């Protein structure tokens, strides 16, 4: 996960995205051969059979930007449903190596000198942002633009304008893309409050001074024990906030995407150590229960529940605000 947890950053970010891996990873898929329909789609975007075959058998995280651009154009034709396109692109990144604190604002800013994109690795938020941005795009240029629109408030690139806080920033700023349906699924809901001090967070984490008032943010989640009763309502491409609790405080420590398994079960597709993986939602809950049992009495965060955000059927992407001219120090 990116730097999203304010005054709790040092201790809580250690738990964010860093869930222990399943005992086994899925086997590599067999070599894919394009269908006649796919070959026709490829020709529409200027690809020949050899190029298409190569990209169908290459993970996204091993592609170069030009290859990504060609593949996204093809995917718009091959997967016309946005939900199915999100699921297909997410699965094409299974195995992508995980790295926390992956992206920054360089070259726009030097506070966080990591780059604006990295296709070869992801953390949990970066994985979701890349997947959504790719699913909404038909070229590299559109993907890069869309990625900034999702990651930053009004698309304005900057450390202070990044959607640092999952619930209070990311979910709210991207309501054009996903809508919080946690309270509408029919399960009992658990209320929680976060005290968000963005001014203190930016000063501590980046040595940036901004005059931002403290916000008390109220939210709700579905307890882990109640998820089984409502998970059949979840759809491909829905955004999941994994809620952790410790010492009476709750927060989104991890995020992922919902995809549907071959048997109709709901799966969580997410980036966590050591790499992007897909597992059943109930399998994830069981695995976290084992982890929490091992860590009992150690004052570590434990899985509390989930927030669910529904992918909009036809997102209307808001315009990007102009990038402001930097101020002078004199």
Topology of this structure?
Blueprint: H1 9-12, H2 36-44, H3 49-56, H4 65-78, H5 82-91, H6 124-135, H7 140-151, H8 166-173, E1 178-180, E2 189-196, H9 198-206, E3 215-223, E4 239-246, E5 249-260, E6 266-272, E7 275-280, H10 281-294, E8 302-311
Antiparallel strand pairs: 1-8, 2-3, 3-8, 4-5, 4-8, 5-6, 6-7
How are helices and strands ordered from N to C? HHHHHHHHEEHEEEEEHE
Helix content: 25-40%
Give the beta-strand count. 8
**Count of runs of 4 or more consecutive helical residues:** 10
Structural class: alpha+beta
Mean pLDDT: 92
Which consecutive residue ranges, at least 5 long each, have pLDDT under 50?
A: 3-15
What is the name of the CATH class of the domain at 6-20 and 97-311? Mainly Beta
State the end-to-end distance. Answer: 37 Å
The rounded Rg comes to 20 Å
Oligomer designation: single chain
Strand content: 15-25%
């Amino acid at each position: 996960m990116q730097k999203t947890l304010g005054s709790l950053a040092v201790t809580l970010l250690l738990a964010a995205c860093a869930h222990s891996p399943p005992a086994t990873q899925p086997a590599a898929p067999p070599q894919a051969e394009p269908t006649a329909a796919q070959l026709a789609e490829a020709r529409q975007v200027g690809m020949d059979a050899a190029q298409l075959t190569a990209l169908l058998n290459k993970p996204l995280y091993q592609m170069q930007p030009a290859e990504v651009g060609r593949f996204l154009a093809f995917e718009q034709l091959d997967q016309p449903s946005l939900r199915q396109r999100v699921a297909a692109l997410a699965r094409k990144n299974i195995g992508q190596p995980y790295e926390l604190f992956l992206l920054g604002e360089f070259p726009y800013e030097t506070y966080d000198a990591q780059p604006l994109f990295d296709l070869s690795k992801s953390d949990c938020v970066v994985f979701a942002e890349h997947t959504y941005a790719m699913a909404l795009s038909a070229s590299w240029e559109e993907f890069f633009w869309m990625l900034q629109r999702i990651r930053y408030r009004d698309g304005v690139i900057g450390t202070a304008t990044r959607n640092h806080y999952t619930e209070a920033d990311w979910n709210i700023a991207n309501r054009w893309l996903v809508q919080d349906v946690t309270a509408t699924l029919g399960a009992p809901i658990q209320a929680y409050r976060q005290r968000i001090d963005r001014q203190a967070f930016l000063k501590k984490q980046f040595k940036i001074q901004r005059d931002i008032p403290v916000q008390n943010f109220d939210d709700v989640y579905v307890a882990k024990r109640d998820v089984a009763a409502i998970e059949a309502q979840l759809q491909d491409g829905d955004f999941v906030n994994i809620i952790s609790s410790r010492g009476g405080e709750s927060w989104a420590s991890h995020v992922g995407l919902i995809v549907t398994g071959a048997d109709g079960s709901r799966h969580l597709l997410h980036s966590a150590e050591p790499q992007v993986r897909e597992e059943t939602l109930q399998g994830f809950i069981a695995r976290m229960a084992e982890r929490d049992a091992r860590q009992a009495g150690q004052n570590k965060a434990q899985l509390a529940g989930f927030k669910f955000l529904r992918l909009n059927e036809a997102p209307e992407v808001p315009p990007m605000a102009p990038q402001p001219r930097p101020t002078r120090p004199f």
